[in-house]
Amino acid sequence: MRDEHRWLRRLTVLGAGLLLLLLGATAPASAHAALRGTDPADGTVLKSAPREVTLTFTESVGLLTDSLRVYDPENQRVRTGEADHAAGRSDTVRVSLPAELGPGTYTVAWRVVSADSHPVSGALTFSVGKRTATATSVLPDRAENPATTSLYNIARYLAYLAVALLLGPAAFVAYCRPPGPAHLRTPVAAAWGTLFASTIALFLLRAPYEEGTAPTTAFALSSLTRTASTRPGELLLTRLALLLLAGACALALRRWRRRIPRRAALATAATLSVALALTWAASEHASAGLQVPLAITSATLHLLAMAAWLGGLTALVLTLRRPAPGPAAPLVQAVTRFSRLAFASVTVLVATGVYQSWRGLGSWQALTDTTYGRLLLAKLAAVTLLLAAASRSRRWTTRLATRPAARERTRVPQPAGGPPLPPDPNPTPTATATPAPSPHHPHDLRRWVLTEMAVGTLVLVLTTLLTSTLPGRAAAEAAQAAPAPAGIRAASVTTIPFDVGTPGGHGRVQITLDPGRVGTNSVQAVVYGPDGGLSAVPELRVTFTLPAQRIGPLDTKVTDRGGYWAADAFNLPIPGTWTMKVTVRVSEVDQVTVSKTVRVVR
Fold first, then answer.
1. What is the Cα–Cα distance from 353 to 286, expressed in whole angstroms?
2. Cβ–Cβ < 8 Å for 399, 468
3. The predicted structure's pLDDT at residue 73
4. Residue 330 — φ and ψ, nearest 5°?
5. What is the torsional sign of CA 79, 83, 87, 92?
6. pLDDT tens readout for residues 514-550
7. Helix or strand or coil: residue 554?
8. 161, CA 20 to 30 Å: which among 265, 303, 421, 496?
9. How far apart are CA 577 and CA 598, in angstroms?
């Protein structure tokens, strides 16, 4: 028994350490929304001053107090109208400008809240008349506040953990009917209190988190009022109300247990559980993007299945640690029922997980090219380990279930009265005899369940990280919709040395790919000889290959323009890391092919 307590303490320390480590290393949450286009376009030079600035996003966005700020070339804020949505367009934000703007380069800093509740910010520039130097750089007042972001993320993690420890034991008691469930009241009450406190913290920190301000602004009346009027704030208030209702129902059930029908109690608990899960699903990634109703349903079932499995495991460990006095059969039946509950939960988790992965990734390439995909791979690996541990636990459950039946078959009836039975020449062990040590002890099952809980904690942490990470599909959409950087696009310039192995047969080729992005590019190649001066060569060939997609080689068809080689229009169809091969012929027989990788973006 002492070893089991040591295992439990180690598990607690491991889970807390892992949670704190990930919380400390967590970056600010990535938003789902991406900037699709702006008017004026980023980096453009206008002949006359525009009357307004318009930003269009890939999904609907919410506005903050100062969602759009305009700064002049001297970093002075320009007086503008109040930012609002374009008529009938929740994905388009605009702000009116003064009638006359002086010449120079202006900076627009923006910060909005995407439909999945995460804030997103950025900046763009436009020039009136001509480009000028500007004193405006990165605007610190529009950046994330590290303290606010850390506190908000900690509250999110605690909320996810608490809902699992609240709903899971409740499902375990309702379905598995363990003997003596009174020992589960304390952890369930602690989970309820943790969830209630973390929800209040999320509500208070919501406005500073969206605005990127310090946590000290959380108690401002204007911040609280604004949060209460937003969808995330309304869902958090709904969660608090549901928790109060659940607490009242639990007290009523405890006081009038015999007067309340079991079916009514179970129906009430199931309704409250689904409603609680909806407060997460309706405010995360499922609330934006493709197939929103189906995605919210899938996310709700995923959260409920996760809570039933991982929270139920916690209840099972506590039940095995402190078994109720009396026959072992009720405990074994409870363990067997939980095995069926866990199997059903795993089935739901797999089905909803596959759908959510398809919806979030968008392509196989996103598995390795995006943070969301890499986190998903880590979660899949952890789930594989979890299934292995669960399979082992299920095997132990089956063995435990067969033990009572075997004991019943070997039990000898005892006379209720009268003379004793004659002695049996071949006696069999009685139920009162000391049994031999069983290789299938419940303590062994508890070890596997503790292992399952440890891996399950990791899965829960990775799941929480995924909810705050830009999905792969949205990342691809953001890359495709990303506006051009401010100013003139810089061309891609690559220098490749070559050596044909003959005296004076070495030098370098400088290749300029303009603008070095997907689409039509111009190609210019200049050959330098051993002395560093320009060198004329009889033949030069430049090709591009994308091995990852099996595209190419694509010939640029550069031609001699008298001192340099060039092609006016060469098309690069998709982004990626291309291999550029250059063939240089310096004489009738001497030539060499050299290569170098070039990164091409949208």
1. 12
2. no
3. 84
4. -60, -35
5. positive
6. 888 888 888 888 888 887 777 888 888 999 988 877 7
7. strand
8. 265
9. 6
